[in-house]
């Protein structure tokens, strides 16, 4: 059991590298081929298709199994990375971005199912914290090398390297999990899944807290690189350094906080996370000069809060569901694509109302405060 968990940790690490390498430059790549005003629309379309796909995931798993599913979508993801690098035409790059977005969400959901199958209920916070620490270390490594890769080979080098790492995932899964037995996935209608979340008030609150967190991630992924590069004037290699420092809390804190949640529960740590992220997100526009240290420090503190929230949400949710509850897991994981629908729409409204692009960050901090108040109303699961 322990060795199989290590395989999932390795697969999660390997796959997180290409996702991390490309997440913060996808919007900039798309801007090279389409009007920047349409970038938000592409994210929205990708997210809608992903949500539809995740609702179909139980049928796919029942028919083909989780191992086949993750191998298939890993190859699809790798191919889409290659075509994004070499396609050269707007219709190829944009369509492959959509395919890549959908495939990557399926892969992360499949990894969740593997890990849930190999995790007991007594140490969920600890094991989820360790898993998040491992996959987020990939984000730190990716940001450390991304700036120099872009400087040497433009965006194409990033996407080709991402394809290579993605191909390692099906290789690891195929070789190391040959004897994996799928659980009997529960067949529950979408409507019943929604009713399950509505009926279980604490689960509903965790869903909304996870949605706010992913809203924060989506907002930051789409708009922070644009702000730092286009408005502050920082080059990509310096932005890579900032993002490397920014992401360190996901590596330094999540395992310890995951263990802590098993002892004291999640509520207080969730409130701490939302309040910290809200305060330091509010401070971003007050840095008006291209000062690497200040931006790194403030963004680091926003991720101290986000890292805390992420492990608390995962710990809470996976303490109350089983690996057979594919619909519930898929529904919980749809917060990422849902956030990529909501965040651009809200940003369009905010940008229409505020006098400057930089004010999108105080607006985001207000949204984070809603999470602070919701977190105060959940009941701990120990």
From TrEMBL:
This is Major facilitator superfamily (MFS) profile domain-containing protein. Residues 4-382 form the Major facilitator superfamily (MFS) profile domain. Pfam families: MFS_1 (PF07690). It comes from Candidatus Nomurabacteria bacterium RIFCSPHIGHO2_01_FULL_40_20. The chain crosses the membrane at residues 7-25, 37-55, 67-86, 92-115, 127-151, 157-177, 206-227, 239-257, 269-287, 293-317, 338-354, 360-378. SUPFAM superfamilies: MFS general substrate transporter (SSF103473). Keywords: Membrane, Transmembrane, Transmembrane helix. InterPro entries: MFS (IPR011701), MFS_dom (IPR020846), MFS_trans_sf (IPR036259), Sugar_transport-like (IPR052528). The lineage of its organism: Bacteria, Candidatus Nomuraibacteriota. GO terms for molecular function: transmembrane transporter activity.
């Amino acid at each position: 059991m322990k060795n199989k968990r290590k395989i999932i940790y390795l697969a999660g690490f390997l796959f997180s590298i290409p996702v991390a390498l490309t997440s913060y430059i996808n919007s900039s790549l798309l801007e090279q081929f389409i009007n920047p005003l349409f970038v938000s629309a592409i994210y929205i379309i990708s997210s809608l298709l992903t949500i539809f796909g995740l609702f179909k995931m139980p049928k796919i798993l029942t028919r083909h199994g989780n191992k086949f599913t993750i191998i298939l979508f890993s190859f699809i993801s790798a191919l889409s990375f290659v075509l994004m690098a070499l396609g050269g035409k707007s219709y190829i790059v944009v369509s492959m971005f959509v395919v890549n977005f959908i495939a990557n969400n399926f892969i992360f959901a499949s990894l969740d199912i593997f890990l849930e199958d190999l995790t007991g209920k007594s140490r969920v916070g600890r094991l989820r914290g360790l898993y998040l620490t491992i996959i987020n270390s990939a984000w730190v490594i990716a940001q450390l090398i991304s700036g120099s890769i872009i400087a040497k080979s433009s965006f194409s080098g990033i996407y080709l390297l991402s394809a290579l790492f993605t191909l390692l995932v099906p290789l690891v899964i195929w070789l190391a999990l040959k004897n994996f037995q799928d659980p009997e996935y529960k067949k529950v209608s979408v409507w019943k899944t929604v009713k399950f979340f509505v009926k279980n008030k604490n689960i509903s609150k965790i869903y909304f807290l996870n949605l706010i967190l992913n809203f924060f991630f989506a907002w930051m992924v789409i708009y922070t690189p644009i702000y730092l590069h286009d408005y502050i004037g920082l080059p990509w290699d310096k932005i890579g350094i900032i993002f490397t420092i920014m992401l360190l809390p996901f590596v330094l804190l999540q395992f310890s906080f995951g263990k802590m949640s098993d002892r004291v529960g999640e509520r207080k740590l969730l409130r701490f996370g939302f309040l910290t992220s809200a305060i330091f997100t509010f401070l971003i526009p007050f840095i008006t000069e291209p000062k690497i240290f200040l931006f790194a420090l403030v963004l680091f503190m926003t991720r101290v809060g986000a890292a805390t929230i992420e492990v608390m949400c995962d710990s809470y949710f996976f303490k109350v569901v089983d690996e057979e509850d594919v619909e519930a897991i898929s529904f919980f994981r749809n917060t990422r694509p849902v956030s990529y629908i909501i965040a651009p729409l809200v940003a369009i409204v905010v940008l229409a109302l505020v006098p400057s692009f930089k004010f999108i960050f105080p607006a985001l901090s207000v949204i984070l405060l809603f999470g602070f108040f919701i977190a105060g109303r959940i009941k701990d699961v120990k």
